[in-house]
Amino acid sequence: MASTRRQTALAAIDAVNAWDISRIMAVRAPNCEQQILPKSLNRPSMNNEAYEKHFERIKNLLRNYHLAVEEILEDTGANKIVISAHSYADTPVGPYSIDYMLVLHFTDDGTKITRVSEWVDSAVFSEFSARLVAAMAGSGTNMVVTEDFGTN
């Protein structure tokens, strides 16, 4: 039988694949922090409120989003799970495809995620962000896309 931590991690993956912010937030602790890494990307850590705003900005830019898990490693002593994954989505500038390493930290009972360290392929992330920003800037729309795929 899978541990509570593993069940929570799988519920988080299912919620992301459903692209459902309510389900995503349901597995996060009230004090959960998430950060896209490496630090060279200069991405701020996001609390739940900031993460919900981030999701609202990206949800329509990344259509048919799917996170495919390649491997899950659990460290019971450290109360965390590491997930190797690859995600795919359709976007206004073509397919999005990137590798991830997610490090999930949990509450003592394993039912909620307290921290997400989202390690991305920085070369792919930076190149794609630049393409998306350039395409949307030249689209003639009033939409402005920021480097984190956010819109305003």
UniProtKB/TrEMBL annotation:
It comes from Lasiosphaeria miniovina. This is SnoaL-like domain-containing protein. Gene3D superfamilies: 3.10.450.50. PANTHER family: AUSTINOID BIOSYNTHESIS CLUSTERS PROTEIN F-RELATED, AUSTINOL SYNTHESIS PROTEIN F-RELATED. Transmembrane segments: none annotated. Coiled coil: none annotated.
